[in-house]
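Chapter review: from sequence to fold.
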Amino acid sequence: MKHALILLVLIASLIGCGTVPDAEALQALAQAGRIALTTSKAGDLPADRWPTDISSLDPKRVYIAKEGLYVVTSTFFVEERGLFVPRASDFVPQVGADPSYVAIGKGVFSYRIRG
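The token string follows.
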């Protein structure tokens, strides 16, 4: 029940950001993210190098960190939200950590950095 509530809140927050990827878009994002993680270095990924499956989400920013690919869909001061494709296939988010992650598809998480 608690996980369902968290997922519902997350989906509502994504709706507020205008980004509600369907299952097909999430699968495409996971695949595009894995490719980007193997072909790009850490740091910001320039918009002209965003695969269609990422640019179709209309991100504010896309960057690669040691833990994976971040697709930023909204920011507010130091807070950041979006979608995350982990580098490790066995990624398990820590409960109560910042950033926080919620699995929303196979190999795709939503995330929130509170700053």
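Two observations follow directly from the output. The mean pLDDT is 86. The radius of gyration is 13 Å.
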